[in-house]
């Protein structure tokens, strides 16, 4: 069974979280690629992941 696109996206976002601009670009890409149920998972994950990272919270506007 292939890995889920959500899992891959999450890994990419974790790896680029050092750069808020790049993180936001990857969030935008993910929104276009993911299936609706994966997008729901991404939104939940983003809120949890960015809770302690205020520099990344600007990207939440893409999913609201």
TrEMBL record:
<protein>
    <submittedName>
        <fullName>Uncharacterized protein</fullName>
    </submittedName>
</protein>
């Amino acid at each position: 069974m292939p890995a889920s696109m959500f899992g891959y996206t999450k890994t990419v976002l974790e790896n680029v979280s050092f750069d808020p601009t790049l993180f936001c670009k990857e969030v935008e890409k993910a929104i276009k690629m993911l299936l609706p149920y994966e997008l729901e998972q991404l939104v939940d994950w983003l809120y949890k992941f960015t809770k302690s990272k205020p520099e990344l919270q600007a990207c939440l506007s893409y999913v609201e």
